[in-house]
Amino acid sequence: MFNIATHMDFEGQGRAEKLSRIIITLFGGVGLVWGYIIQQFSQTVYILIAGVLLASILTIPPWPIYRKKPLNWQKPRPESQPAQASSDDTKKKKKN
C-alpha cells in the first residue's frame, strides 16, 4: 500500500549523529548564555529541551538525506550446498 522507508545507511547514521550533537551543543550553549544573562536556569533548560526536540525531529526519522548510499548486498547462496555440508558434519560426529 504505502512504501515508507524504515532504514538509514551507515553514512546517514553518522551524519544524523553528528547533526544531533551539533544542534544539542549549540542550543545548550545558547541556553546557558541566555539563562546566565537573565539569571533564570529554567530558561536554559527550556532552550535545551527545544534543541533536543529539534534534533529528534531532524535525525530520528529516516529522511532521504540519510539514505543516499545504500549497501549492495550479496546474492543468497543456494540452500542445497549448506544442507549437504551440515549432514556430512553430523555423519562425521557420529563416527567419532
Automatic annotation (TrEMBL):
It is a multi-pass membrane protein. The keyword Transmembrane applies. It is found in: Endoplasmic reticulum membrane. Keywords: Endoplasmic reticulum, Membrane, Transmembrane, Transmembrane helix. One of its GO terms (biological process) is signal peptide processing. It comes from the Eukaryota. The keyword Cell inner membrane does not apply. One of its GO terms (cellular component) is signal peptidase complex. The chain crosses the membrane at residues 21-39, 45-66. Residues 69-96 are annotated as: Disordered. Component of the signal peptidase complex (SPC) which catalyzes the cleavage of N-terminal signal sequences from nascent proteins as they are translocated into the lumen of the endoplasmic reticulum. Dispensable for SPC enzymatic activity. Belongs to the SPCS1 family. This is Signal peptidase complex subunit 1. It comes from Anopheles sinensis.
